[in-house]
Design brief:
100 residues; 3 helices; four-stranded antiparallel β-sheet; Alpha-Beta Plaits
C-alpha cells in the first residue's frame, strides 16, 4: 500500500477568487477524481481553518495499492486536467509518498 500526501500553500487570491473559494474548488475537483480513476483507494482533501503561522492551507491524503497504481493516477488524463488549476492557485507544494 502506498500513501501519497501533498501539502499546498495557496495564494491569497487568484482570478478574483479568494484563497478559501479556491481551496473549496480544489477540494471538490480532487475528491471527484475517485469517481474517474479506479486506482484511487482513498482520497481526502483537508483545508486548514486554524491558520497557524507554520501551517499549510490545503492537504491531500490518498492511498494506492502500489507505486505503479500511484504512477497511473499521476499520468491519468482526469488528474492531468486538475493540475493547471492547482498550480495556478498554489504558491508552494510539498509531497511525501511512503509504503506501508
Amino acid at each position: 500500500m502506498v500513501k501519497h500526501i501533498v501539502l499546498w500553500t495557496l495564494h491569497d487570491s487568484v482570478k478574483g477568487q479568494t484563497k478559501e473559494q479556491n481551496a473549496l474548488l480544489a477540494k471538490q475537483r480532487l475528491e471527484a477524481l475517485k469517481d474517474n480513476i479506479a486506482d484511487i483507494i482513498e482520497i481526502e482533501v483537508g483545508i486548514s481553518h486554524i491558520g497557524q503561522g507554520s501551517s499549510v492551507d490545503m492537504a491531500l491524503y490518498s492511498t494506492f495499492e502500489n507505486e505503479a497504481a500511484l504512477k497511473r493516477y499521476q499520468a491519468h488524463p482526469e488528474h492531468q486536467k486538475v493540475l493547471p488549476f492547482i498550480s495556478a492557485i498554489s504558491s508552494g507544494r510539498q509531497v511525501m509518498d511512503y509504503e506501508i
